[in-house]
Amino acid sequence: MIKTILVPATDPAADAAVFATALTIARAFAAHLDALHVQLDPLEAALAMSAADGTGSATILDSLVAELEQNAMARAANARAVFTAFCEREALAIAANPAQAGREASAQWHVETGQEARWLTVYGMTADLIVAARRRTAGDEAAARFILETLLLETGRPLLVPAATPLAAMPERVAIAWKPTPQAARAVVCAGPFLARAKEIVVITVEEEGRRSRDDADRLMRYLAWHGKGAVAAPVSPGARGGAAALLAAASPRADLLVMGGYGHTRLREWVFGGFTQHVLAEAPLPILIVH
Hints:
Elements: E1 4-8, H1 12-29, E2 32-39, H2 42-53, H3 58-89, E3 93-94, H4 98-101, E4 106-113, H5 116-124, E5 129-131, H6 141-154, E6 159-161, E7 173-177, H7 182-190, H8 192-197, E8 200-206, H9 213-226, E9 232-236, H10 243-251, E10 257-261, H11 267-273, H12 276-283, E11 288-291
Parallel strand pairs: 1-2, 1-5, 2-4, 3-4, 5-6, 7-8, 7-10, 8-9, 10-11
Antiparallel strand pairs: 6-11
Helix pairs in contact: 1-3, 2-3, 5-6, 10-12
């Protein structure tokens, strides 16, 4: 059951799809949205910037701190305004605890100061689900990818990455990218609330030399059958496109949500060699529920 959802409030342009997707899920489960905005520490940032360019005088440092503090406050106010407008438009109750929320979806605003990745990890560890944007402001792709990787690898919680179009309804068709790994197994368990509501489930396996992927799919389908859910198998060949592209080509036309395990190798190896997870996160045209 999903009862708490963490939503990073980072950039108004990216937040709209994330908030809308999170709300669709929250309404389905009468869950609570924790919107978290992390503002930088002006002094910490100023010290780092002055050390980098060699300007360390007290006057320049004070001026830089004041400027950064003003910018941080403006960003926080803007993010809060977007959140408030969203809650008012959606008639979403503001609540700090279950007693205030009642039996409806609710939301709460949080602000922390410091390193964004650290605070998102702290909050994420006590959420049932994290919904975060794939991209943020143009030109900020590397920072967005770092945040997604941190949430995925450091929280131990499932991460849902929406598509460009917000999720307007709970997915009725779910694709599972299956390979017998701990990450994929955890993803299936964490996807339980979505699988329970799905009308169609397809198990997609990417053929590998020396492996009988049909046997792998059969075992997962048997597991799902014991949980009252029918599924069909869809083995695909990687071909010249590669496994990740073949997976997305198979999942996109027949699913509203893709469930998969992420980062079966170390993050460094995935980063250097352009791994499977990296490709899916960058190119998937449908929402992804991913678990490490």
